[in-house]
Amino acid sequence: MNKSFIVMGLCLCVTAAHAGSINHFSNKFITIRGYAEFPSYQLELKSQQTGKIVKWQPNLRSITGVDFSIHGLFGAGIGFQGPEAAETRESKGITDYIDYRFSFAFRRFHMALNYQQYKGFFIENSAEIDPTVQEPNHIKERNMTSGNASANLTFISNPESFSYMAALDQNARQESSGGSWLLGLSATDTHFSNDNFMIPAAVRNEFGNDSRIKVGHFYSLEAKGGYGYTVAWTQKWFTSAAVNLGLGGLWRVYSDDQTEYKSTGSSGKADALASFGFNGDDFLMTVVVTGDITTFTTRSIDIPRHLWSAKLLIGAHF
Predict the structure, then answer these.
(1) What structural domains and CATH numbers belong to the chain?
(2) CA-to-CA distance for 292 and 256, rounded, in angstroms?
(3) How distant is the alpha carbon of residue 285 from its chain centre?
(4) Under 8 Å CB-to-CB from 51, ≥6 apart: which residues?
(5) Cα–Cα distance between 56 and 304 in angstroms, integer?
(6) Beta partners for 271?
(7) pLDDT tens-digit profile of 66-110?
């Protein structure tokens, strides 16, 4: 199943051409970027008893595409999956997937909306789990599914000193170094389902009460806080980073081959942004890495869900 990867964005700029050290390119009409992106999704199951980890991943491919934003008010883009070698399909299996990531960048806050749905997984650390499985082979589950839907809101307390918009998508340019405290909320719905047990038989005795888990659905809401900072090496060269940490509540519904369990619990949250590059008056070239980790729990298993992306962008302001 070949699915196109679509990214849409919305940006509202309510400042003049410069607000403090932030240049919003109000004299430009459109920004166009070509990009190459390397997405990543991982679902870990970690034993609270022994620390053993089973790392489930879909077999994702790189994405190339183009996006644009008009006057910093609205943007959209489309991308396509890269080719996949036959030996990779043999080793890691085939994944059908949909991956939508939306970004809404405002002067004082940023919102990220994500929707991912995958079918077909392999265990990345198969050789650690079962010594009879040797590289390049992996334990594979063609019918295993997992999905994520999340909304992540970040409030910038001092937007004159730190621009999330400039750090993330270069629709603005931060021309002097500065930072800001960040506050936010995150809501997440993550689920998985497997015809077989999520924990392979070779290590199942290390995972306690929930070692026979097959299906899980986790809803969480976290409050978070952090800090963002941009180093402006020159007017046009920059390095930016932002990190948020959070805690929240969790509603979990999961089942093994016999029983369904429902209960409340706690969840943890970490998200991060790092970017580096050149954002000139007409030309831009940047590398942007984003990450989101939300951790759920059962009675005997911790389940961190990892969502990462590394992107190279080359574009121009017109």
Answers:
(1) 5-317 (2.40.128)
(2) 27
(3) 21
(4) none
(5) 11
(6) 244, 292
(7) 888 776 566 677 778 777 778 888 899 999 888 787 777 778 888
